[in-house]
Each structure stands twice: as structure tokens, then as C-alpha cells.
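Take a protein:
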Amino acid sequence: MKSVKFYILTILVFASQMLFAQIEFKTSVSKNNLGLNQRFRVEFSIDKQGADNFKPPSFSDFKVVGGPSSSVSQSWINGKASYSQTYIYILEPKNEGEFIIEPASIEYNDEIVKSNSVKITVSKAIEIPKDPNNPDYIAQQNIHLVAEVSNLNPYVGEGIYVVYKLFVSENISVNDWRVTESPQYNGFWNQDIEVTEINVQKGKYNGENYRYIVLKKAILIPQRAGNLIVEPMKMDFSVGIPTGRGDFFGNMITRNISYATESAVKTVRVKALPDEGKPVDFSGAVGEFEFKVFADKNVLKASEAAQIKVEVSGSGNLKLFEIPKITTPVELEAYTPEHKENIITSLNGLKGTISDAYTVVPQFKGKYKIPEASFSYFNPKESKYFTMVSEPIFVEVTEGKEIPVANNDTAASHKKNVVANGNNFRFIALDTAFKPAVKTDFLHSLEFYLLLLLPFLVIPIGILMGKKRAKRAGDIFGNKIRNANKLARKYLSEAKKQLGKKEAFYVALEKALHNFLKAKLQIETSEISKEKIVDLLQNKGVDASTINEFIIVLNNCDFARYTPTTDVMMKNEYEKTVEILTKIDKQL
């Protein structure tokens, strides 16, 4: 009976010990002091079965480069059972300083159990010892992440490129890799170039043979002057390091380790665009470009649409500047342009065409001029600005309503009331200062004899003048030329007076040109055509450039009445006309 009670008591004591035994949940690390470029192992271990819902700390000051992984250990030695479950992480510090790994938590018997916290001290990056047997040293010597920048001293707006290459020696193997942090391009406009295939190539690194792959390519266009930083790309690897031992079949046994590396920081020293020679209309275009403005049709009917296209093509920062705008007369209704881009991105930069297409619909019959447009850009290869000016576009509307003529007649002036002031009435002087006139005898005076002889002098002069006048009156052809010359001077003078009044100015200027031609080329107005003018002036020995300038002025007079014009433009047109007529007159 006593033995039965003893066994019962023993069982109860053992059960109570098992029931009230304390659970142990602890945190341990492989090292408490390390360099910024080192990694360490952290383990959370629990010694009881039945624990569940493990929750790790945030690791906010560290980067998780491995894990979580778990392992279970269970043994029975000399009748004593032991159990351990471990959660494992590989961490890398982000910054220098002292940090705390907070406790992890787990549930056991419906209670939350927490592990202890651990203090970690992180110092500056340390040099990995040059130990040929150290796996980290072997990985460092055989894996290189390189950023290649095409130009470290560009101008603002000049395109450059960066290529990231991974060089791996043939002595080791990379089993897995991932990008942990992509590079940043602060201060640059950037666009990635898609890497469609990862192809292993052979190349040289520091004069040694390596295998390499291209990971990333990007176009960079600096937006401001100064030193700009191309930040590094960071990567993690699973690396197979040879152990120097072979297996049963003679194959090399490797040891897998985790390794991290990053590309070097690149500093790009960006030059500002020069102020000297910078055009007024420069809008930031940098590269090599062509510029043109053209219409799909130049003759159309009222309400029939035409398309005016403004196009910039070439290579450079095509996406970072505005295309010049065109100005149309009020009689041509222009709609918001349609913008198109056809650009290819490669390591040579941005190349292609950008354009604005304006839909233009005329409202009235007539001839219209769309003035020339200008485009300026900076060529970084020549370190110089260039300006291109398009030819003006002339549009003729053959059918439609006539342009209404504004009534410029002024109303009759109104009568004004007389305003009285203090000076309307003055006092009448009572005293005079008159003196008696001296009486002279006109007979036999000098005036008397001059008047007596004057008819004898006037009569022969009158006869000569009459004969000359009759001869001149008989010269019908010469009179026409002289009249045309007078009219040319008259209308040129009238044009100068009408500066600021567009319609009257260009009418007078056009009449002056026509009468000048009549006087100098001895042709009738009805015979005047541009082809006839060119032929006659060439026959007279006028040079081609002067003839071309004259035709341009003539065209401008024809079309400028229907286009937007400023006082400055009219003044320039007048001065240009006077200059050209003077040139022609001298050459004739």
C-alpha cells in the first residue's frame, strides 16, 4: 500500500514540475561589434514544443539579407529529453552607431512570451583581411559591380549614358543574385534602356579575363550646372566558393556564402551653357538639329483646311524643349496644334523627330502670308549656338467671301464754343510813335530802269523755254518715264508718312515699286510680271542677290496686308525697300 502511495506521489510531483517548468525564449547574435560592411547572424531560440505565432522585431536599423530560416533540434540522453526550435536571420547594418535588436514574441499556452533584447555596436567599414582562405575576401577579389559613364564633364542638357556591368571571375560561381537598391539620378532627366536579354560575355577587368553581364543601361541628361552624383547600385549574391577539396568523383566541393557589393559613386561635373552668343529665342535645345516649317497645300478655297507643320529633327534633348510657334493672320483660323514625337532611345542618346501640326481654315478670299519662324539650339560638340530661320509660307485662297473693308471716313467735326479769357480785350494806346515817311522820286531811279529792261530779258528766255517745253511735250515715251519716276518718289514718300497704318503703307509701297520699275526698265504696268522683272533686271546687269531681294519685297507687299504686322516691321520693310532701290539704281 505504501509503495502504491509512493508511486502516485512521485507521478504527481513529476507532473507538477512539468506543468510549472519555465519556458526559455532567448535572442543570440554571432557578433556584437562589427564594421559597417560586415554581416552577422541573429537567432531566436525556444526550448518548449507547442509554441506558435512567432513574430520577429522590425529590424528597422538593419537590412535583412538572409532568412528567415528555422531549425529544430530534439534529443533524449540518459532519460532526459531536450528540445530547441530556432529562427535564424542574416542582417547587415545600415549606419554606424549603437542599435538595439528588440525582443521577438511567440505564443505558448495562450500566453505571449518575449525574448531578450540585444545591443549591437557598428563601427566604420573595415578592410577585409587578405586571407586567401577567407570566403569574403575571395568573393571581394572575384566579383566587381562597375558603373561606366560615357562623359563625366558634359554641358547642361547634353545627353550621356551609364551602363552597369557585373564582372565575375571564372574561379567562382554565382548561384543567385538580386538588386537590393537601384541607383538614383538626382539632378538628371533619365530614361532606362531596356535590357531584353542577359548574355554572358567575355572581357577584361584590370587586365584579367572575366565573364560579365550588362545589368542596366540608362540615358542621363543633366538639368543644372555643378557636381551631380550618380549613386551606386547595390546587390546581394549567393556565391559558391571553392574549398580546395574534391568529392569522390573528383569534382570540386564549393561552399555557398552570402555576399553584398555595390558600384562606385560617380561624380559628373556639369558645365553651364555659355551666355555669350545666346540667342533671344533659345529655349534649351541642346544637340544637333534640323528645323523646317511647311504646308501640305498653298492654294485652297475658303473653309477648306490646310495643315501647317513645324518640325524639329536630329539628336539631343528632344523631350526637354518647346517647338517654336507660328503666327497666322486673323483671317486664317488656326486650331490647337497636334503634338507628335517619334523618338528612339539608345546609348547614342535621344534621336528622332518632334512636330506640331496646325490645322488652318481660311475665312475669306485673298492672299496670306505666314511669317518665318526661328529655332535656336546649342551644339555641345562645337560649343556654339546656331539659329535656323524657316521660309515664310504663302497661302492663296481662290474662292470665298471678300474681306470686308472698314469705313475710315471721319465724321464731320463738331462746332466748338468760344472760350473767353483775360486777353480777349486790351486797352487802346493813346500815344503813337509814327514818323513822317521820306518822299523819294521813282523816275530815274534804279528800280525804274530795271523794270524798263526786264521785258527785253524775259522774252528770249521765254522763247527758249517754250521751245524746250515743246520738244519735251513731243517726247511721249520720255514723259511717261519721268512721270513714273515722280510717282515712285511720291508714293515712297507717302509710304513713309503712312508708317503705322498697315493697309495704306503697303499700298503706297507697292505703287512706289511698280512706278520705279516703269521708270527704270521702260515697261508699262500691264507688262509687269515677276518673271519679266527678273529677265529685264538680269539683262540690265543687276546682280542675282539684289534681284532676289527686290522680288521678296514685292511679295511682302502683296501678302503683308493680310498678316499681323507691327510698326517696327513696317519701318524695317521701308528701309529695306529704299536700300534695294538704291542698289538697283546704282547698278543701272
Notes: DSSP finds eight helices and 30 strands in the chain. The chain has a mean pLDDT of 79. Residues 20-123 form a domain with the Immunoglobulin-like fold (CATH 2.60.40.10). The CA atoms of residues 147 and 164 lie 5 Å apart.
